[in-house]
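tmp note - Aldo/keto reductase
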Amino acid sequence: MRQACTQSVALSNGVKMPQLGLGVWRVTEEGLAERSVLTALEVGYRHIDTAASYKNEHEVGAALAKTSVPRDEIFVTTKIWNDDQGFETTLSAFERSSQKLGVDVIDLLLIHWPLKDKFIDTWRALEQLYKAGKVRAIGVSNFQIYHLEDLFAHAEIKPMVNQVEYHPLLTQVPLLSFCNDHQIKITAWSPLMQGNLEIPLLQEIAAKYNKTAAQIILRWDLQTGVITIPKTVTPARMIENATIFDFALTEDEIARISSLNENKRFGIDPDTSLL
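out:
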């Protein structure tokens, strides 16, 4: 086993969330998610991000049952899908996810998308689960500022995390600033831009540190205070993505990477989607 990736950030309620995680989006081949999670835990990852809509919570659960890593050292995130949004349906969805994952307590439960006319009731259910001690932290995903402001008007508890698309071509500065002001941590999905890494500046900085462009981006995530969950099923890539704790970017390099922003999305836009 390699050294565990234990660098963490404290959420607003004091829960520590590992800053580097493994995402398992689109890992649907039978048995692959289980093998990937087991490998990741062996490599040293301590944060696994899944969702009901990924259809692999049961395989993540199988890996949790088989690994020698103690459960209390592993941070597990899952999400409430759109079909399950609403108060009672969210409570039922939580029970299904909990059973598939094989855990009594889920570390972080998110609303997957800001589904109009539904996410307020969904949030009420998450607050109830949190107060009952069934989840350690609650949050949202793909919420824009106006979604968060709407939620604040009805919520007793503010989200602790907002998981959004975030990378050098989509730095989401206003959203990041708003979330920082409200003690909401950002988690980056698609941090590696779905493999679109042929950017000269990233290659230049990577050569300086004898790293890859992917490692430079993930290091930039860490140093800008963002949680990051690169997805891979390849053991060598898992190791590569985790080998980002042995160097640091300069402030100038962080600023230059941030200046690459083009407001370019590789995934769904919460403003224009029909979700």
